[in-house]
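User: Could you check the structure of this?
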Amino acid sequence: MVSAALRPRWRMPSTRLPRSVARTAPRSRAQGLQPSAHAYSSAAQSQSSGPSRVQRYTRRVTLFLVGVGVVYGLDRRFNASAIARNVRTLCTCMAIALDYKLNFKPDKANQIPALQERVAQRVYDLLTSNGGLYIKIGQAIGNNAALLPKPLQEKFSKLFDDAPQVPYSVVESVFRKEFGRPPAGPDGVFELFEEQAAASASIAQVHRARLKTDDGSEQWVAVKIQKPDVSKQVEWDLGAFRVVMWLYENYLFDLPVYFVVDFITDHLRRELDFELEAQNAMRTSQFVASEPRLADRVYIPKVYPELSTKKVMVAEWIDGVRLSDRRGIARLMGDDASDPPPRPPLPADRFPTLRGGVEWVMRTMIELFSAQIFDWGWVHCDPHPGNIIVRPHPHPRRRGDAQFVLLDHGLYVRLSDAFQQQYARLWKGLLAVDFDVVKSVAEEWGIGTPDLFASATLMRPVRFAQSNTPDFENMNDYERGVLMKEKLKGFLTDTDRMPKELIFIGRNMRIVQGNNQSFGSPVNRIRITGYWASRSLATSHHMSLSRRIREMFSHLVFLSVMLTTDVLFWATKVRQWFWRHFGRKSESFEDELERTMRDFAKSNFGVDIPENVFEG
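Assistant: Sure, the predicted structure tokens are below.
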């Protein structure tokens, strides 16, 4: 028998837990399912020691809204709402881009007209809400909007450069900042200053004032004052314009539009420098005086550099009838005989009837701007009817004659000699039906569709050869939009070579055409412009004698060719006269050109251009 001492000792493994664990272990299954009092107290402490998630989010939102309110208030008080305007611009442009991305699709072709209406309304609301420089940008786009969708054309045509005037207290603060003196009074700049503005536009307003003179004579002047908010907003506005154009070209619409940004922004900045505007006016006056055919007919108001700063410009006050007052111009020039009596009184009645008729006004206008383009290389880029005044000639020997007065010299573009020669060759080639010349100039400027370019230049359809035009009538709105985009990209094949001056030259040409059209096309605009283009080539100073002889001979041949346009023009005038005597209205020469341009745009681009889209 084995002794107990020799038996192997075997014990159950110990289940006793370490003390540290045993202290916290539950004593029973029931107790293990219940949280301890310590857990309850920890949770209570955590809840009482910190806010809940809802409270944290509420506090963050409140702080954010307060911050936005503070920034908005400071922006409005000290920065003329420039940040708010930029936010509005970016939000609007992103909404437009998103709308196009979601809805400009083949399966939604029937909804594209509604899309274009929404976009047009958004753009119009943005431009009018922001005002200031946005109106100028919108007008620049509007003058080149003939190939945009019809809703956009109609909205752009409603953009007027007028705005409420700022209070006189603001005007006085501008004077004290610029001159250290008030506008009027014993120590004022002027003897008398009218507190009510005579006119108010988007960036400035004009007041009438009387100069202090030693002899006591009354010399009235126009005082142009830049609105203070504009200088605070300009860099923000131009920066937003730059960003939007870059996004549209590179990410959204894939159209070459950014190449014009630097040129446009630079000239818009120049327009805000009133010292530069005074210099522009004096330079234009010198050009006019050097041209015998215009010196007695055109007048540039005298400016006072000693009373002008970057924010204030003083010029001679001109009393006359603005070209925008069509009935007044017709009465002043004696062309309202067809109005049935009794004729209502007009402001123009304070002047005697002048010689020459409306035809004299339009001829002088077209010759002035043709001289600027082809001879001087110095072009006024805003010849809208409000910037032109017709008045009785002030010289006693010219009693009964009219004088053409050009205002607002803030926006000019300089043309190089090379560009002037090319543009003159283009016009002469178009009117002489020398399409090889037109194609050559278009190629030099990086333009891939010379027929479209020629049509835009003449403002009448030009076809170089028979070609298959797309059948837009059987296309939906999506297909027309895609094809038009491709045509526009084909037009601008090399934006580096395209002269940026064409943007403002085209604006000038379209406004001049509209002015002539609004008065019934009393003169042949195309012939007059072509004459100045051909003449500039024949009288250029940079030619040898043999070449000058050839150019003069070519000029004489060209004038004989122009007789064909005169025949067409006078046939239209006779038809107008005939139907007018039967109480019916007939199309003018410019009306016919516009109608053919509308047909051209419809057949080649599928675009509906509204009537009178080019009217001044």
